């Protein structure tokens, strides 16, 4: 089962272009919340994350580890575990200005 989910996550990465949407890197890619979903925070598991990404495509972006950290830090995501709260900066602002 773990292998199947890993393959499906790779397919999702390819669907999102296979590169970081901020810097263009193809290394250490991760899905970042750019809009809150009900699946926010730790302990969610890869299978649940896969279905959340698949069902909420507009709520995620493919970012490298470095850009994902910068986006989360910009929005204080390490402090904000409440998915109903809004982000301080939109993903579009992050792409264009930071």
Topology as a string of helices (H) and strands (E): HEHEHH
Number of strands: 2
| Structural class by SSE content | mainly alpha
On the 0-100 scale, what is the average pLDDT? 83
The number of helical runs is 4
Q: What radius of gyration results from the CA coordinates?
A: 13 Å
- Give the biggest beta sheet: 2 strands, antiparallel
Give a description of the structure:
It is globular and about 35 Å long. The mean pLDDT is 83. It is built from four helices and two strands; from the N terminus they run αβαβαα. α1 (2-15) packs parallel to α2. The chain has a two-stranded antiparallel sheet with strand order 1-2. The chain has one domain. With 98 residues, it is mainly α.
